[in-house]
Model the fold of this input.
Amino acid sequence: MRAREIMTSPAFALTPAATLEEAAEMMTGHGFTTMPVVDAHGRLLGLLSEADILRTPAPPGDPDTGVMLDGGPRTAGSVMHTQGLAVPADTEVHELARLMTDAGVRSAPVVEGGHVVGMVTFRDVLRATAGRT
Done:
């Protein structure tokens, strides 16, 4: 079994301009701990995790608009990390388990040709390895 067979698709993704509040809402609404940040063509630019959001202190300003007194909004693009685990769609489930465990991540984007096509979670991998997809 491969990543493309167990991933959530279509992928939920953020743009770099998404506020951290919008990102947190999307993460909690869809149950992901990490979200891909993509350009207008769906190419992976980076990853934004729950921890990235929680580590970013909220400067004084207007939380309803995301505009802060430091001159700009808190956005996915300003906080995302560009290094992280992204897996090809043809990655075998047992390799996914190893990669995700080694990287210490609970979810990862699935990519084909640099474009995000889905997300795979540790729970997806666990279900597949237990034979319950």
